[in-house]
Structures are given as C-alpha cells and as structure tokens.
Task: structure prediction
Amino acid sequence: MFTIAVQQQQYKTYILSDEAAASQLEVVPERGGIITRWRIQGQEIFYLDTERFANPDLSVRGGNPILFPICGNLPDNVYTHDGKQYTLKQHGFARDLPWQVTDQVTQDKLSLTLVLCSNEQTRAVYPFEFQVIFTYQLQGNTLEIHQQYQNLSSAPLPFSSGFHPYFLTFDKNGLEFEIPSQEYQDQITKEIHPFKGNFDFNQDEIDVAFKQLTSKSASVTDNNRKLKLTLDYGDEYPILVFWTLKGKDFYCLEPWSAPRNSLNTGENLTILDPGGSYTASVRLTANFF
Result:
C-alpha cells in the first residue's frame, strides 16, 4: 500500500510510505525541495543536521540537497554572462528556494512531483527563464529522481545540475567503495591521484572529483551498518564527487553534470536552446545484509 501524508512540522513535510516494504521518504518542498529523510525498516539512510535544518539562514547539511544551476562554487562566487558579472553562491539557489508540489501519486506507484520556476529572486543572479520539474519515486528499497529542465528564455540556457546526498555512517573505516574510476582530482589542491579503492579518513576534509568514469553505477558498502548503497546515473552525470569531514557521521557521493566553475569555463556545461528541455535521472538502492 502506498500513502502520502502531510505533516506541519517546522515546515510542511510530505511523507511518502511504501508500507509493504516499511520504506518512508520525507520531502520538504519549501526548504529547497529537499528529501530530508529516507528510512527502511526504521533504519535511516540519510544523515541530517537538524540544528542547521531548523535555521533558514544556513544551508542544509543532510538529506539530499539539489544542485542547480551550478555544482560546486565559482571563484569569488562570480561568473560573467554577456559582459555582465553576476554573483551566484555555492551549488546555486535551488537548494534554498521553495518548490511547489504539482502532483502526488499513490495508485500503482508512489511519487511526488515538485517544480521550481524562475522568478525575480533567481533572475537577479541568473538572468534566464526556466522551469525545473522533479519527481521523487519510491518503491521498496529504491528511490528514483526524475528531472526535467526546461528553457523558457529566448536565449540559450547554460547550467549544471546534481545532488549532494549525505549518507549516515558511524565508522568510515568500515566503508568499502566501488567507484568506476582509477583516479580522482583533489578539489582543494587540484592534484590528480590514483584511486586504490579507499581513502585516508584521518584527514580533516576529503573533497575529490572522479571524472574518468567507466560505468554508470557506483556503490558503497558500510560493513558497520550492514548496508550497501548503490547509485545509478545516466550519461547526464559524468562526474562523481566524494566529500566528508573528520568527526562527522556522514559521507557524500554526489553525481554532478559538470565540474566547478563550468559556468565560466564551459567544461561539460549543459546549454539548452530556447524552448528546449532536458531530462535526467538517478537511482539510489539501499540493501541491508
């Protein structure tokens, strides 16, 4: 049985339940359209810093924040378009703005559809007309996120997109990685390093990008939690970013469509013709063993 309930917590929260699988998803449209929680048989899949989440002045650290119209940051948060400089903060504005719920489905499948449209606030930092539509679909231990990006401008629409999922873990040394790449770029030093399947978690911060992906699937096995998470993605996502902080109970494995600063460099940038649309999808599967 599939149900969608609405609770007024600090924010209006949509709770999607696949009762047969004891799988539950919580979505907060007005706080960046974010999935805040995903539970399977009472086990949390995502990490969530509830104190930061409660403060609307802080970015959310947890759940699955949406990255649009950029991934990562720009030098000094600045980019140039048509000779004019604009300021756009890290990961863009989609994760901060309210989204609108446009559809709920509980018959034969379970999904929630949200939309973000350009407005006066977005045009001040990103001079384009757009509509972004996300459908979160939950079935058992699988979460699919279907996306459609539409250019409503009379000019080409440049953007990158991605996700920033925070996965809960209590012992990073018990993590096993299957990432389809033999090297990564340290996003702090810009150096390229060979990837041997593990990381040194004694570092204060790990922030690396895998750009030479050889397949469309990656997984992390948490031996402490007896949990294997698999991330499947399409050609739209040629980059995986791994990020974590020492002493925090999370790691992030993030599909990005383009690297940092692509709005300035053009590297892997998606450019939609006027009136054009673009679709993408990712799938997360959580298997306890």
